[in-house]
Amino acid sequence: MKVRSAATLRDIAAISGVSVSTVSRVLNGTGRVSTETRKRVMDAARRLEFRPNALAQFFATGRSHTVAVLAQKATGTFSMPVILGIAGRLAKEDVAVVVYGAEEDDVGARPENIRKLHARQIDGLIVVGDGNDRVLPSISHLMDPPAVYAFGVSDHAEDPAFIPDDRMAGRLAVEHLLSIGRRRIACVAGPARSDAMGRRVEGAQEALRAAGLDWARPVMHGGWTRKWGRTAAEEIVGRLGSLDAVVCGNDFIAMGLTEVLTARGARIPDDLAIVGHDLWEQYIGDEPYFTSIDPMLGALGEAVASHLLGLIADTALSGGVHELPCRLVVGHSTGTPESDRV
Question: Are 39 and 17 in contact (CB under 8 A)?
Fold first, then answer.
């Protein structure tokens, strides 16, 4: 089967009855051209399925229509949804994405990363971290194109950065528990040094205070692991009569907690309702057992890409941290999931 050769500016000019230079002005959006002429040229381009040569377009407009993503963990469970959201949004604008991985604590610091990015003649850069606690080294001053930071913040306060709203996450967890009649709520949190965890606890406390309540026991801090959940459960199991709900720092903590409590005869959610964070089960394709906070990382990636497109077009305001909404997904650990309700 013979493949049809790609259409050229000369082909479009011949069909639309104008000069090659006029076709170039129309397709590049430069110069003054009448509405009728513009329509003839665009109609001819569509009929011929014209696709501009990337190199020629770069020389004509100074734009490569390429954005680079520099990721801390390009294949990480939580980085991937962000990157997919970025790629999906940019694809709608016919912008290509090139992804570079980097050492976890060395994003953008290595000279070879900067050289690669400059060699690509990119229009913009998105640096993707591996969590809200990550402070990423700013490389904006090393790059001419604009840069935006995602799922992590830059160490330069003026760099635009997008992260999930952790305080909102804490509020949503407690407000849901209050809505199902739980009042004696404990918190099994992640590390005390975690700023993200601190913001979630603050948001949860705001919701408790609004209801005239406080934690039923002091917040318990530990790791992000099932092991910590199991350890915390040993303390909680003797207090089941004084508690009716637990907010967990993440779903792994909730898993460890549930494992021990159910082995000791506790009924979830009858005796104890549990809320996690990260909506981990969506990544392994399971129905949600745990009610959990979804940080909506795909939507975050889309928002980052939209902001960068605005910076490239000089229509977006730059600077500062943008906290994006998250949502609560109901699972069996606090009652009947919405998907199971009649």
Answer: no
